[in-house]
DNA sequence: CAGTGAGCGAGCTTCCGCTTGACTT
């Protein structure tokens, strides 16, 4: 029977909506985007691979035309959708109403290609309630192609940014690194904050902490107050100092310890009078319902969940129908949800807590696309946490969301905040004022249900009460105690996952669906690491950020994304043109240099300079350098540490690398070594360390040993670890190479560990052996037996194929799968093709193997001599010719 | 930044945004 096919983005949404729409409709999901630019060479179609822009999959010379592919794991799903469409008489594209959703709708249309007799409609809704869905089905619109263009612009710009700038980092900093519009700015935020911390100079300041007695009859009778001013000049507090440790405000008196102590002494006999009592009404509005970022922040503060844990717990709640969609930038509640919340407030707290009018929360997020509701309990009436039957993290997160939603429809908290100033004269004639502030809450309102936590420990939570006595102006008060108190300013706090995400949102960088993964990216790349909950930048991030700031200032600027959003809005509104904008970004225009130009001009970037950071002043002569094996210190040629180097522990936060710390590291450059004891024969100290080639043991020669005496070393066997290694093991390792014996001609055979693993050596003839343990145990007979065998030429060749697939349709040669140095590959005897990411030996068919081989063949014979100059002539003459051609062509393109 | 001996298929890394998968006992 014919039906109408509705396609939404999320399977859980499809289920819900299917229930609302009834039997005439079949509701399916796209499961997000269904097509995208190929993300790696393996997925790039052969026909564009050899184009100069093939790596980008965007034809930058012809209108920035993108080449989309359906990812392998989506193919089956597309087939399913096509099948459903076959029996449909109408297609409703009901993806989210935002830029990405509009693009998904267009991709669906372009990929499913409905027949002319199947009308296509675009259906949009912002809340998943029966009424909203039915209305949406009755009021479809057309696809907004300008919005699709805006999304394409965003997609292409991100591709060009990421895939052009990342290779610059591979060349100049380290292979495998990445740069992108979002991650690079996120990293920069963390680096900039650390640099502020490094520049930070602490300020010490003092004040007086007083305890005052309001006299009997007052409740409370005793109350605290702090020194506020001396001779009408305000006493400096922490916020009055800048990061340089200097007072940043005028008209402040900076008290030292001596000042504070002498003033306290002079106040010993002072009596005080109330100078002023200022009372203001205190009102506090409830917080808006959760959106993705605020949920992540509160789950972090209240439940200690990381952003990724929060999202996956929320995902499960969503899939099981407990909450609405969790990736949203909207704080809007549907009418039904508002009613449900108000009902719940009445039931739980009484009618007094229900405001007359429902509360409406406008979005605070600048580039909000508001395709969804706020995150709230699902349904038209809310289940209390106890009614859900949930447990563990799901229960706790649901409870948080429920409380927040309910509280958002409660009355304001009301009360009074009071400031009391007490004045008195010191023995030396100075006039002093103490100040005390209190807060009383007369009606808690929403605070009974939910109080937001704060990241800033100096801020009071909204529900904290401090009661003060009801004093009147002129009333006399005595001091119970006046104590000098010392304080120090604190450096700006490091970002946590939650505060970094908050910062990114405020700067319009990233989207709800990506906040958690942005953190994942910068952690995975090694740009930042976590120390407790704090995000600490690695030195690598300093190098990368420096390169980007110096050479891609526009792209790495904090405003880049916000400006891009404005442009995209204009494209979506038909006021600007996609190609003009992309061309400006990529090729430049007027005095704006394009990305392409910047990338091409990078030959002169000095990688060494980029990776060098001065520690302390020039005179100290200390540099930190970011090396392939991590950060290390190096002395200036003309400085006190000339020629010296020292490892810097990977987990030493950059702001803790003081000059003193650097000197300490120079003094003990060995870094972390594990003391194993004294060698029973030589009496030398034996230690285990981590080195360039992994963990190893070595012995410490006496300081006065001649320089050419090298200490013996030995890599740990794979079966050993630095945690468990014993002196006994170490002694064995140091005994290598071991003399196994002599052959019939009197040539010595030794056993040792090398770059390619354990092996035997007889003169210049070496043979691999199969276990490291055998280095210690192999006998002369066994060794002679190995040498009696002819030498194997190459490990790969010696191994039997993993699988035989039959004959290749092109070459007619048998195709086999083998395991080699670079992983598994297929070969027909002439060409070898490495298996791609998604291939497995088990599932590999001859068809797929032939595809890989054809792909490989299309790129021509292996180019052996191309790189390091021809050492040996390649076996095949024909191969040599085309190799040379290929190589020249490539060079020409690069320059 | 410890120090080592052969000869072996080179080819790939990377962006941001949408959304959930998961071969088995």
Automatic annotation (TrEMBL):
One MF term in the entry's GO annotations: metal ion binding
Q: Would the keyword Oxidoreductase turn up in this protein's UniProt record?
A: no
Record region (Disordered): 852-895
Can you tell me which residues form the catalytic site?
A: 325
Alphabetically ordered keywords of this record: DNA-binding, Isomerase, Magnesium, Metal-binding, Topoisomerase
What is catalyzed by this enzyme? ATP-independent breakage of single-stranded DNA, followed by passage and rejoining
Residues annotated as domain Toprim: 3-129
Q: Does the keyword Protein biosynthesis apply?
A: no
Record-annotated site: Interaction with DNA:
33, 154-155, 158, 163, 170, 327, 525
Quick one: where's region Interaction with DNA? Answer: 178-183
NCBIfam families per UniProt: topA_bact (TIGR01051)
Q: What is the documented function of this protein?
A: Releases the supercoiling and torsional tension of DNA, which is introduced during the DNA replication and transcription, by transiently cleaving and rejoining one strand of the DNA duplex. Introduces a single-strand break via transesterification at a target site in duplex DNA. The scissile phosphodiester is attacked by the catalytic tyrosine of the enzyme, resulting in the formation of a DNA-(5'-phosphotyrosyl)-enzyme intermediate and the expulsion of a 3'-OH DNA strand. The free DNA strand then undergoes passage around the unbroken strand, thus removing DNA supercoils.
> By what name is this protein known?
DNA topoisomerase 1
Q: Which organism is it from?
A: Nocardioides euryhalodurans
> Which lineage is the organism of this entry classified under, starting from the top rank?
Bacteria, Bacillati, Actinomycetota, Actinomycetes, Propionibacteriales
Q: Which gene encodes it?
A: topA
């Amino acid at each position: 029977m014919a039906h109408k096919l509705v396609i939404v983005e999320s399977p859980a949404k499809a289920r819900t909506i299917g229930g609302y729409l009834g039997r005439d409709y079949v509701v399916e999901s796209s499961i997000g985007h269904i097509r995208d630019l190929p993300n790696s060479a393996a997925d790039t179609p052969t026909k564009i691979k050899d184009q100069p822009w093939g790596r980008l999959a965007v034809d930058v010379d012809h209108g920035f035309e993108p080449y989309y592919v359906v990812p392998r794991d989506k193919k089956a799903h597309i087939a399913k959708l096509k099948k459903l469409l076959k029996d449909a008489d109408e297609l409703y594209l009901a993806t989210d109403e935002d830029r990405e959703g509009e693009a998904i709708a267009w991709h669906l249309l372009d990929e499913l290609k409905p027949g002319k007799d199947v009308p296509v409609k675009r259906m949009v809704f912002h809340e998943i309630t029966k009424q909203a869905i039915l209305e949406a089905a009755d009021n479809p619109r057309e696809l907004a192609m300008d919005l699709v263009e805006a999304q394409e612009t965003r997609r292409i710009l991100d591709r060009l940014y990421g895939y052009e700038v990342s290779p610059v980092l591979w060349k100049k900093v380290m292979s495998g690194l990445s740069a992108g519009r979002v991650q690079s700015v996120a990293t920069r935020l963390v680096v900039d904050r650390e640099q502020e911390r490094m520049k930070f100079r602490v300020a010490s300041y003092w004040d007086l902490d007083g305890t005052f007695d309001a006299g009997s009859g007052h409740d409370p009778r005793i109350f605290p107050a702090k020194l506020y001013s001396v001779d009408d000049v305000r006493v400096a507090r922490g916020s009055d100092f800048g990061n340089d440790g200097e007072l940043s405000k005028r008209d402040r008196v900076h008290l030292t310890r001596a000042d504070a102590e002498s003033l306290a002494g002079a106040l010993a006999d002072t009596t005080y009078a109330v100078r002023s009592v200022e009372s203001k009404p205190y009102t506090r509005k409830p917080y808006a319902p959760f959106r993705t970022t605020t949920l992540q922040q509160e789950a972090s503060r209240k439940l200690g969940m990381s952003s990724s844990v929060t999202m996956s717990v929320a995902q499960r709640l969503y899939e099981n129908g407990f909450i609405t969609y969790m990736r949203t930038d909207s704080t809007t509640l549907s009418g039904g949800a508002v009613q449900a919340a108000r009902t719940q407030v009445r039931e739980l707290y009484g009618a007094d807590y229900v405001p007359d009018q429902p509360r409406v929360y406008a979005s605070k997020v600048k580039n909000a696309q508001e395709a969804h509701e706020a995150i709230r309990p699902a349904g038209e009436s809310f289940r209390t946490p106890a009614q859900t039957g949930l447990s563990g993290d799901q229960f706790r997160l649901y409870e948080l969301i429920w409380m927040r939603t309910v509280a958002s429809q409660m009355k304001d908290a009301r009360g009074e905040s009071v400031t009391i100033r007490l004045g008195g004269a010191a023995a030396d004639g100075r006039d002093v004022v103490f100040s005390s502030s209190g807060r009383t809450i007369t009606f808690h309102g929403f605070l009974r249900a939910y109080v937001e936590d704060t990241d800033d420990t100096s801020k009071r939570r909204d529900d904290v009460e401090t009661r003060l006595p009801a004093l009147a102006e002129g009333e006399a008060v005595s001091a119970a105690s006046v104590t000098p108190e010392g304080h120090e300013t604190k450096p700006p706090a490091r970002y946590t996952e939650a505060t970094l995400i908050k910062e990114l949102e405020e700067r319009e960088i990233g989207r709800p669906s990506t906040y958690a993964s942005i953190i994942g990216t910068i952690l995975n790349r090694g740009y930042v690491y976590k120390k407790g909950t704090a995000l600490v930048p690695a030195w690598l991030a300093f190098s990368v950020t420096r390169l980007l700031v110096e050479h891609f200032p526009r792209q790495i600027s904090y405003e880049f994304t916000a400006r891009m959003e404005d442009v995209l809005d204009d494209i979506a509104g038909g006021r600007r043109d996609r190609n003009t904008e992309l061309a400006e970004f990529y090729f430049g225009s007027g005095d704006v240099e394009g990305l392409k130009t910047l990338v091409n001009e990078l030959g002169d970037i000095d990688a060494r300079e980029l990776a060098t950071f001065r520690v302390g002043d020039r005179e100290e002569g200390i540099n930190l350098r970011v090396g392939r094996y991590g950060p290390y210190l190096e002395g200036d040629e003309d400085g006190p540490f000339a020629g010296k180097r020292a490892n810097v522990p990977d987990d030493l936060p950059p702001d803790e690398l003081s000059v003193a710390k650097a000197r300490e590291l120079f003094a003990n450059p060995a870094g972390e070594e594990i003391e194993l004891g004294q060698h029973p024969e030589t009496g030398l100290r034996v230690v285990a360390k981590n080195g360039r080639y992994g963990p190893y043991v070595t012995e410490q020669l006496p300081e006065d040993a001649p320089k050419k005496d090298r200490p013996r070393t030995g890599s740990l066997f794979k079966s050993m670890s630095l945690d468990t290694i014993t002196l006994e093991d170490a002694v064995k390792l140091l005994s290598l190479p071991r003399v196994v014996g002599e052959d019939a001609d009197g040539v010595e055979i030794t056993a040792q560990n090398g770059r390619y693993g354990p092996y035997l050596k007889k003169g210049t003839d070496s043979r691999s052996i199969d276990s490291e343990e055998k280095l210690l145990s192999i006998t002369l007979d066994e060794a002679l037996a190995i040498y009696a065998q002819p030498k194997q030429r190459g490990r790969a060749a010696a191994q039997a194929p993993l699988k035989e697939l039959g004959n290749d349709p092109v070459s007619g040669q048998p195709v086999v799968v083998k395991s080699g140095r670079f992983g598994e590959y297929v070969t027909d005897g002439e060409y070898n093709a490495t298996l791609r990411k998604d291939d497995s030996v088990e599932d590999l068919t001859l068809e797929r193997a032939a595809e890989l081989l054809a792909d490989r063949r299309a790129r021509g014979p292996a180019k052996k001599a191309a790189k390091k100059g021809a050492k040996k002539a390649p076996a095949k003459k024909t191969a040599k010719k085309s190799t040379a051609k290929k190589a020249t062509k490539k060079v020409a393109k690069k320059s």
